[in-house]
Amino acid sequence: MLILILLCLSTVAYQLGRTRALSLTGKLEGTQTLHSRPVYYGVLTALWCGLPALLVFAAWQICEPLLITKILVAHLPREIQELPVNRLNLVLNDIKNLVSGNIVSGEIKPEIEAAANHYRNLQATANGALTIVVLSLGIIGTFIARQKITPHLRARNHVEKVLTFFLIACSTFAIFTTIGIVLSVLFEAIRFFRIIPINEFLFGLEWSPQMAIRSDQVGSSGAFGAIPVFAGTAMISGIAMLVAVPLGLMSAIYLSEYANKRFRSVAKPLLEILAGIPTVVYGFFAALTVAPFIRELGVTFGLDVSSESALAAGLVMGIMIIPFVSSLSDDVINAVPQSMRDGALALGATKSETIKQVVIPAALPGIVGGILLAVSRAIGETMIVVMAAGLAANLTANPLQAVTTVTVQIVTLLVGDQEFNSPKTLAAFALGLVLFVATLILNIIALYVVRKYREQYE
Q: In terms of DSSP H, where are the helices of 391-422?
């Protein structure tokens, strides 16, 4: 509610700043006497109103729990303050649960009830003070910004500096988030490679991450050869791309070169709906429809088809990826200049010859980049493989047999209560690191292809 009020106040500040700028212009000169357009003066006033208040609000949301907890602990009875840290945290947890209305373990003591009431009073006081401070900052910022508006004020420059800083902050946050994810996976993978040699992991032919708890336990050898997992990932991704690339590329060519505007306006959104369907729905479709159909078809021809096969998962995954290839290829083909088509047709080429010899070569870098991005999407898919291809790490080239992928094994290894010191759990981080490197290489190749050949046809 406070943020909503602040947004309304910023809207009022925008109108006040814009009106103030317009009032400074002469009737004859108009807005030509202003350094910037009136809208920039309004935006600058709104920023003065909203930004300081939002920064204080965000800082208070971060610091409020620590400050209130510190004040609460200081007012607790001395025998509670002198408890060990673990027990004191349990008491504080009971107090917070009592405040929020959750069930509290054990009987509620009078001192705990009093502390909960004190906590409520502190929260009410903090919320009231925050409201007053935030609204006061918004009003004061609006008043100061409005008073500073003059015809020579470089409002546009100030607004663009703020927006530039905001964009830099967003990109920096994204970069550091990526670095944090990579480092968290890398450190755990290094711990795994200290236990299992990296050559055994990358080139081993058996994958059985179940570690033996006792020396006489059967079926828990703890083999961590990831070749079957990588092979299964490559097989399913390859089948998916064999489906997605021809269908996606042909549909993109038809929609961009042959279809009329009316058909295109209907077909393109319908095709892109496939990208919005949840992957678990595709998994149900693969497990309940495609896999039984393939198995019955294989029985008709005398083939031994597993109930969970790489072919079923790959076919459904290919259908899911069609919009990625189609949409990207369509955009790239439409970006080819019309003058190139006109020149080929003027020289006597047919429409199909123009597409094959002019349009497709011109759009090839973008098409290749889109295909590589689709491959990355296929490699990272999980739900379809879990439901249609199974969990068995079989090293086979037969698409009619059950296989597994890297993402499925990561999910399997991290499901349930696990000890993060065991090689079984740490293997998930090693697989994640390999998957990250593979998708990163594909993305780099896609960007390199697009950048290298883009200027050739501009």
A: 406-414
Place of tokens 């300081």: 52
Question: Tokens 């390859």 identify what position?
Answer: 238
Percent of the chain with pLDDT over 70: 91
Whole-number Å distance between alpha carbons of 308 and 225: 22
Q: Is the dihedral of CA 172, 176, 182, 186 positive or negative?
A: positive
The reported pTM is 0.68
Q: Are residues 376 and 411 in the same domain?
A: yes
Handedness of CA 262, 264, 266, 269 (dihedral sign): negative
Find all residues with CB under 8 Å of 68, minimum gap 6, and list them.
Answer: 119, 122, 123, 126
Which one, of 70, 18, 10, 64, lies nearest residue 39 by Cα? 18
Q: What are phi and psi of 209, to 5 degrees?
A: -75, 0
Q: What is the predicted pLDDT for the residue at 218? A: 41
320 and 430 share a domain?
yes
Q: Which residues of 139-157 are buried (b: 16+ CB within 10 A; e: fewer)?
A: eebbeebbebbebebebbe
Question: The domain containing residue 249 runs over which residues?
Answer: 207-457
Token output for 180: 């944090």
Tokens of 159: 């607004």
pLDDT value for 211? 54
Shared domain check, 79 and 180: no
Mean pLDDT value across the chain: 82
- Tokens 């994640």 belong to 432
Give the phi and the psi of residue 31 in degrees, each rounded to 5.
-75, 0
Q: Specify if 389 maps to a domain.
A: yes
Report the distance separating Cα 220 and Cα 218, nearest Å: 6
In the chain, the number of structural domains is 3
Angstrom distance (rounded) from CA 36 to CA 292: 68
